């Protein structure tokens, strides 16, 4: 007697880590495993090792697995199951589908990491019950997953939602993508760290200044800590990041006339100092009739949104129907 | 015996004129009539007079009319049939649906002017056969109508596509909408005229300079003429407008991953000097995989796009099915 296939692997391929999990069709995370990545490593080896370690750790019968859902950073082709371009991972035309199929003999589905999170937020999170939602991820880079009238916006080549590569500053900083003045150059985790270190180097006053005597550079968790301690340098910097995100989000609302904007990604551990600025910027600059009712919130699913949305590629239909009592 | 209802009125309510037409379900323009508007007039009176004059001119039996489709500038509510906000027309919460129903006893449908043009371009124009299209109108203001996977993007309140009110310049010029650095402040017909006159006043050299002795200010048709005469001042200015539009269009392509961008609106009578700059900007700044195949073209329907799309609200389904041999 064949067993029911009631589980799927969700793989979240980010700029700094690979997160893999086995998730049930009710949305429960059965088991998860995380590996670090850097651009010098062979990404496919890291991914395969991570999934193998997950399977060992979980002791799940592989016959219960529907497949492997992958949420990846960058520009993807979901029909070819290839990652076309992901500067944070230093890969190009990466055949993730073929690699995983060959290694694990399981069906593979692929989507953008932000699209995965948008699906998860729309079905289980902040956007539950709404038809229009934008999920904005702020981590190593900046991206967006967009739900329009209950459908995921994929675009002609499954590459819609490159929010981080929209210009907010005319003649601004050049970006690795080829564009200039991209939001990602001003409001990503990478940008926050660079901005903080540049300002500290130029002599601005902060409780972080002393740290630079012992550390080569300040990291974002230091900035988060300093902001909580009331460090004006850090709080002002994070408010500025909120303003930059505000420009982008007003643009999104004016283009999409959405109902919900959910923020996720590693940088949102500093949301207390960023989101109020975002909301203030929207209130002061948005067209009132289009912005006044928009829900602006931090993710409730946190770092699980990517793996949940990725696994959800295998039972999204089911999930929409269930009462989702997870 | 009741006659077949095979015609609809299409009304295009713009910043400087009201264009009304009677259009057949095959897309043929039976008759049209145009009136000028300005912000000091009673807009509803101008509209009613225009439609009455159209009906008189066309001699069409009103029993053949399905209704009045309205394409309007600004932010609209298609379910309430109200124009909520249109700064170019100086109106707010304008109940166009009630006004026309009361006057003509015909069903009324309302959509954004750019949405109407997008429908027309998608069904009959540049985007025929494609599933994803953005129509960008550059006239008094700048707007967009967006087709995603064969559906019009309406948004939560039918107000999606406010492309002219997306910020492209951080800390840029304040806009009437409340936002700052809006594309519309840099690349609309209004912006072109202002930029040209400011530069001429400051003494820049142009064949237009002489005109300022006899005229109070230079108009856009003067600039169009001068560009055709090889005036470097005018050509450079229009190239710059193309660059501004390029910033916005790269943002659109990165967000929507669209297949076609169609340009329309009065300013496109200068498209020879604007669109090459737009295309160059996109080539130089867009993510290659997302931009290389995108069709960038001027409208083929011209100023009829608004009235055709507006009337199309009454027989869009038919039009999609027909071979559209107009």
TrEMBL record, chains A, B:
InterPro entries: ATPase_NBD, ROK, ROK_cs. Pfam families: ROK. Gene3D superfamilies: 3.30.420.40. It comes from the Bacteria. PANTHER family: BIFUNCTIONAL UDP-N-ACETYLGLUCOSAMINE 2-EPIMERASE_N-ACETYLMANNOSAMINE KINASE, ROK (REPRESSOR, ORF, KINASE) FAMILY. Belongs to the ROK (NagC/XylR) family. This is ROK family protein.
